[in-house]
Automatic annotation (TrEMBL):
<keyword id="KW-0889">Transcription antitermination</keyword>
<dbReference type="Pfam" id="PF01029">
    <property type="entry name" value="NusB"/>
</dbReference>
<keyword id="KW-0694">RNA-binding</keyword>
<feature type="compositionally biased region" description="Basic residues">
    <location>
        <begin position="10"/>
        <end position="23"/>
    </location>
</feature>
<feature type="domain" description="NusB/RsmB/TIM44">
    <location>
        <begin position="22"/>
        <end position="145"/>
    </location>
</feature>
<dbReference type="InterPro" id="IPR011605">
    <property type="entry name" value="NusB_fam"/>
</dbReference>
<feature type="region of interest" description="Disordered">
    <location>
        <begin position="1"/>
        <end position="23"/>
    </location>
</feature>
<keyword id="KW-0804">Transcription</keyword>
<comment type="function">
    <text>Involved in transcription antitermination. Required for transcription of ribosomal RNA (rRNA) genes. Binds specifically to the boxA antiterminator sequence of the ribosomal RNA (rrn) operons.</text>
</comment>
<comment type="similarity">
    <text>Belongs to the NusB family.</text>
</comment>
<protein>
    <recommendedName>
        <fullName>Transcription antitermination protein NusB</fullName>
    </recommendedName>
</protein>
<dbReference type="InterPro" id="IPR035926">
    <property type="entry name" value="NusB-like_sf"/>
</dbReference>
<dbReference type="InterPro" id="IPR006027">
    <property type="entry name" value="NusB_RsmB_TIM44"/>
</dbReference>
<keyword id="KW-0805">Transcription regulation</keyword>
Length: 161
């Protein structure tokens, strides 16, 4: 009797990216360019809108993140300054942009649970940042969440104990 070759299990596909995840990625790319060049955000935004796949993202969330982070850059940096170990201008532009997006979502996107906002920022840092940048992002945003969403954080931590 001849042995049958072992059948290979089908390769697992990564889950499809949500429209919100795509909007965060596009906003990060725009913020990165802005942080590096200081170019007009309108020009950066126009360039981002021409990219393949732009139609698959949550445009309202993208607009809020990109423009909101630029408009509130100084305020977001002051929130982050209390939790970073150096000036925000000394952070890598990717980590800086990720932290700005995370802080913006914690501050303004109350429909996004704080743990989700932090996790999404960590995933951005894993995808685009340095080797251990996601750990730094996680720690900074976890502490910033205590300032920006104290009741939600307290309730979540109380529920754990």
């Amino acid at each position: 009797m001849q042995d049958k070759p072992a059948s290979k299990a089908p390769a697992k596909r990564a889950p499809a990216k949500s429209a919100r995840r795509r909007s965060r990625e596009a906003a990060l790319q725009g913020l990165y360019q802005w942080l590096l060049t200081g170019e007009d955000i309108g020009a950066i935004d126009a360039h981002m809108r021409e990219q393949d796949g732009f139609d698959k993202l949550d445009r309202a969330h993208y607009d809020a993140l990109l423009h909101g982070c630029v408009i509130e850059a100084a305020d977001l940096d002051s929130v982050l300054a209390a939790h970073v170990d150096r000036k925000t201008t000394e952070l890598s532009p990717i980590e800086h942009g990720v932290l700005m997006i995370g802080a913006y979502e914690l501050k303004h996107c109350i429909d996004v649970p704080y743990k989700v906002a932090i996790n999404e920022a960590v995933e951005l840092a894993k995808s685009f940042g340095g080797t251990d940048g996601h750990k730094y992002v996680n720690g900074v945003l976890d502490r910033a969440a205590e300032d920006l969403r104290p009741l939600e954080v307290k309730a979540a931590r109380k529920g754990k104990s």
